[in-house]
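ugh ok so i messed up the first submission bc i forgot one of the chains. this is the corrected input, ALL of the components this time, i swear. 228 residues overall. if the numbers dont match what u have on ur side tell me asap before i send this to the collaborators (the ones from the other lab, u know who)
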Amino acid sequence: QSALTQPPSVSGSPGQSVTISCTGTSSDVGSYNRVSWFQQSPGTAPKLMIYEVSNRPSGVPDRFSGSKSGNTASLTISGLQAEDEADFYCSSYTRTGTYVFGTGTKVTVL
Amino acid sequence: QVQLVQSGAEVREPGASVKVSCKASGYTFTVYYINWVRQAPGQGLEWMGWINPNSGGTNYAQKFQGRVTMTRDTSISTAYMELSRLTSDDTAVYFCARGTSTGRFDPWGQGTLVTVSS
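and heres the new structure output, hopefully the right one now
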């Protein structure tokens, strides 16, 4: 199972919006609404930001939103803040009952 | 509160095995899956497999089949991940994460650093 494809980095100024893509195949992202997004700061465990494509756990700001079209899922951060600077990973359920993560994207706040 | 607490850092020689524990608290242990994910230094996240604490059923990533064993002890709400025939490529931080059938991994344990070195 190959990793889902994410851009290595994205950046934006405070207040701007950035979008991270997560491209898989018809065997994972394209077939299941079981896409999650995680934020990871250096030296810490990942934190769930979005689950089931577009649902936010309690406590996650509504600046974070998720969507999916075909084999590509996306995470959008609106109103970018300095505290959003971190690595972001997507994950998806696959047709073999396993999970696969994305390659990871570093978000930089300029 | 819901919490997963993992065992401490380990150092192993190549060819050895390591067993990492993940103790759950704050919820009914048998209701949620436990997933194991690892992260090599400077690299991304890699899903290893899950265990259903209720049945003991497992599903491993193909890459680790034959080398990983996930078990649980429901009497102490603890899951275990054992990895055998270690090489230097297995040096990583190993995380456990509570999971649902829809891939909702939350929360995560604090991570356990496993170093493989002679």
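quick check: The mean pLDDT of chain B is 97. that seems consistent at least. Chain B has no helices and eleven strands.
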